[in-house]
What we know:
The chain is built from 5 helices and 13 strands.
Amino acid sequence: MEPAGRGAADGEMKPFNPQAARDLILAAARPVVFLGMTDDWPVTRWTLPHLCHVLQEQTLRFRIGKRKEDTEPQFEPQCDYIDGTIRQFQDWVSGSSHEASGPFFRYDPAESWAYADYKYLALLFKDQPEMLQEVSWEDFGFPGRDGRDSTLWIGSRGANTPCHIDSYGCNLVLQVQGRKRWHLFPPEDTAYLYPTRIPYEESSIFSKVNVVNPNWQRYPGFSRARPHVVTLHPGQVLQCRAALGWQLREVRG
């Protein structure tokens, strides 16, 4: 996948002005990665230690999955769920004591991963609304869009979502810390992904295939799928519209 532009050094103009970025987002027939568009965004400093300091004892719901290799997807009903703070999550990832990692202590980080997703910034920072101004989607041609409608995703190495297609929406995804690998399939690959409505989710359709470790005997048609695979690095923004097809996300650390 080709990036939309190269990173701008300090003092240089961004690769795209807001209108050009918006036009590209709405017209692109393939996923697009933007470079050099967020270098001046305060949100790029939202590392785990920073969020620990800002959110203090506020708890988030985390999904816990198994690291073991399997040819079947690990759907959400097969995972465990716990409520913990970001500091407890950070301590668990870093291998701190059981006492420091709180509810995470029951899980070995060498055998399990944890993922908190779809955490609306407007709710997380309801007592700190100024934090929402640290996100500026205006740079991508969406006037007045700060972080109010954005969500936060945090995961440990190996965390992933099952491959799925969202039935609506146009998403811009900013990578803040670590790396995330995306497997993106065009709509014409739908038949090769063996779609299913189980588990049922109103806005998503899932694939029966574990696309990173497929069961070739059970899903032979998957060999005809042609994904775009991109690893998103800090500061980069991925444009991913529902009309562009299927996606799987895995945290690379």
